[in-house]
Specification:
24 strands, 6-stranded antiparallel sheet, about 350 residues, mainly beta
Amino acid sequence: MREQHITRRTFLAASGGAAVFACGWSRAAGRKDGLRFAEPNGGRLRILDGDAPVLTYNFGDQLKQGVPKNRTRSCYCHPVWAPDGTLLTDDFPKDHYHHRGISWMWPRMKARGKAVQLWHLHGIAQHHAKWLDRRADGGSALLAVRNDWRLDDGERAGSETVRIRIHKADAVGRAIDFELTFEAIGGPIELLGAAGKGYGGFCFRFAPRTYTVITTEAGRQKDSNGKPFKWADLSARFEGAGEMSGAAVFVHPKNIGAPHGWTLRHYGFLGPCWPGLEPYTLQPGVPVTLAYRVWLHRGDAAAGKTAEAYEAYLSGSEKVFPNSRSAGVYPRRGTAVGLTGGRRA
């Protein structure tokens, strides 16, 4: 087994720095212009841009009427909207009840010597533990939370620290950054993608639509498993919308195992697979961090300037997580902090 090493690079705020507020609601919470938080309701926290909804983070248990109770889940993003107001994500779709907006989950896991999985919520589930940060300055919003991975008997087997940075939209699209840090507690946890296909990890399930097109840096794609790409984009005419819009997922090039293989599905799924078909073991006291950017845009991948947005992501010109203490990996120059990751099994 070989230890993995990843590096954290501290982000400095662009254009004079971001306003920093104490944990809890920022002074921008009462504003009606720019990015802001709405009051939590029903286990949901919504981020608005003015009066327009951007994203809802579900920190409490969610269950759609008519869906089996064992599909109850939390700690994911849905709904998510494009800058033109188009609904992009789906939750509890009939073809895959376990799919849930923007989420992070695995179909094969081992904890305490038993087979469990966050994918179908068998034997283990994510539970909200603590707010770490919630702030908005009009130009961007930061949401940070710690969640527990609890076994069916309530024992904590792992934890995740989730940091989400929502950027102000421009005329074409909006960037949302995700920093996900995972750590085992009380014993190792093995993560593994689906047998023969590799799916598992960061996931984006799309809302109903027509005229679906999936594009990567290599061009237009068919459904596939495990092909490595730097980014993937799904654009379509979504239900209730007259024009095309879409979303892309960018994988940070310094993520462990990058470039990741992908699960691409025209029924409405994008998923960069990590760790794929080779198991990865999280160890207690040794956090592992993955970084992604979601690009929500008008039009198709070309009109939405997805390729250009990916290059902007690599340039590090945007402020992301200037005060993060987790083990992120980013391209911008800054203070490097060495950290040992988990282990390949």
